[in-house]
Amino acid sequence: DILMTQSPSSLSASVGDRVTVTCRASQSINNYLNWYQQKPGKAPKVLIYAVSTLQSGVPSRFSGSGSETDFTLTISSLQPEDSATYYCQQSYTTPHTFGQGTKLEIK
Amino acid sequence: QVQLQESGPGLVKPSQTLSLTCTVSGGSISTGNYYWVWIRQPAGKGLEWIGRFHTSGSTNYNPSLKSRVAISVDTSKNQFSLELSSVTAADTAVYYCARERQWLAYWYFDLWGRGTLVTVSS
Q: Residue B117 and residue A59: Cα distance in Å, rounded?
C-alpha cells in the first residue's frame, strides 16, 4: 500500500494567516493527489483534485501544488470557517489511501 | 442533484456480518463512468478505503479486508451494498458511501453520504 504522511498533525493559526499543510507519498503517485476537508460530525468534502484543480464552489483561498511524492495544500488567508481536519488522498493505485489528517484550529 | 444515503443496523454482534446499503437518489447508479465506494472512519481516527464497484461491473477491495468484504449492486433499487463478515470491535466505525468520478485521468470522491455509525458489541 502507498503510505501517505501529512505534516503537521495539528496546527493553530489566526484569521488572515497563510497556512500550509504538506503530504508525502511513500512512492511516486504522479498527480493522483486529492485534498478533503472534514468538519466534526460531517462527511469529508473534496477541495482540490489532481494536485491543483479546485472543486467547483471551493473558495479560491485554497490551492494545491506538488508532484511525484511531495504535495502541499495552502490556505492563503485563513477564515474562521476553515477550522476542520484536512486529509490528502492518493488515487494512483488501489487501495486508495489517505493521510492521517491535519487538524486546523483557529486561534 | 445526486445524493447518497447509508442505511443499516447500528449495532452488530462480534463474529456476525455487517450489512449496509447506500441508496442513490437523483441519478442512476448504472450509468456514467463512476465508481461506487465504501469508506470507513473509526471514532477520532482517519479514513480507510474499503472497496469499490464500477458501473462496468468490476470491483476492487482493500487487501486488508478482502477475505471478509463484498460489495454488490442492485440496479433495480438504485442501491449498492457492503457486507463485512466476522466483525470484531476493530470494525466499529462510521461507514460512508461515496461516488468516485474521473476528470481526465484522475479520480476523486466528489459525493459522500452522511455516514452511519456501526458499533460492534455483544
A: 30
The residue in chain A having the minimum alpha-carbon distance to the alpha carbon of residue B5 is A43
Q: B2 is written with which cell numbers?
A: 445526486
Mutate to test the interface with A, among B108, B112, B116, B117 (most CBs of A within 10 A): B108
H or E element: which one contains B100? strand B93-103
The DSSP output letter for B44 is T
Instruction: Name chain A contacts of B52, Cβ cutoff 8 Å.
Output: 94
B28-62 per-position pLDDT tens digit: 999 889 999 999 999 999 999 999 999 888 999 99
Mean pLDDT of the region A102-106:
98
Tens of pLDDT, residues B76-89: 999 999 999 999 99
Minimum distance, in Å, between the CA of residue B15 and any CA atom of chain A: 25
Residue A39 makes CB contacts below 8 A (sequence gap 6+) with: A83, A84, A85
Query: How many angstroms separate the Cα of B105 from the Cα of each of A92, B117, B118?
Result: 10, 33, 34
Exposure b/e, A63-102, CB count within 10 A at least 16 = b: bbebeebebbbebeebeeebbbbbbbbbbbebbbbbbbbb
Q: Whole-angstrom distance between the N-terminal and C-terminal Cα of chain B? A: 39
Contacts of A101 in chain B (CB under 8 A): 46-47
DSSP state of A94: S
- Residue A104, Cβ density class (10 Å: 0-12 exposed, 13-18 middle, ≥19 buried): buried
DSSP state of A17: -
